[in-house]
Amino acid sequence: MNRILTAAALVAMAALSAAPAFAATTAAPAAKPAMAAAKPAMAAATPAKPVVLTFKLIDANHDGKISFAELKKYFPKLTKDEFAKADTDKSGFLNKAELAAFVKSQAPAKPTK
Question: Residue 12: pLDDT above 70?
Answer without folding.
Answer: no
